[in-house]
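Cross-check.
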Amino acid sequence: MSNKTLAVLVFISLGLGGYATWKHLYKDAEEIAKLTVEGMQKIQAREAQEEKANQLSSIRERAAELNSDKESPFAGNIDGDLTIVYFFDYRCGYCRKADPVLDELLNSDSKLKVIYKEYPIFQDSMISSAALAAHKQGRYMEMHRALMAHHGAFSKEVVLGIAKDLKLDIELLEKDMKDVSVKEMIEKNHKMAESLGIHGTPMFIIGGSMILPGSVSVDEFRSAIEKVRGELAAGGTSMQEEPPHDQQTKKES
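Predicted model, tokenized:
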């Protein structure tokens, strides 16, 4: 039944006075619904701000631990003046877009250090286990970049095939993939991410002073790095969050 038809029937059954009352109540209901939605949006925005404030506070407290991590793989200058901690997942399309950006930054910035945090957010750690096993052979970055460059589904056969193309010791790789230290590192990264309120990839923590969530362009990265370096040089300690970009989260199906 159309709105017009309903209005006519109401008009006939209730008369002019009744219809006026019904119309007034309907408008009130609309206004109440609008105010309710706006109120919920304000509550959600406030809760999001509080969550981000807690996240930034946690990162500030653990900044030294994050930046001085000697167990995780890294690239760039070991004594660099700025460290980027990178949480990622090989099954994350946004990470595959972000990874070449990091390579470009590393190639153009000799004072930069990037720490790689294997963070398979859907708990499928097979690919990360292979990458960390390659790390034991001193070949992490080659394996990492080859895995990120792969397009298509991952399986153990595919991952081992990539390792074989890189001429890694496959027998040793498979053994190290099961090593307890590899499992513990992935679990440690998960616990770290959860404690910092990180629920998606990619996520970048720059100098323990800024977080960049999602896929970020080279120019945006350089601007953030310059800003953090300036603040660190001036003795600044305030944490900042840049607007979120495209990101894979645990809520995705």
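The first strand starts at residue 74 and ends at 76. The domain at 64-249 is CATH 3.40.30.10 (Glutaredoxin). Passed to J.P. for a second look.
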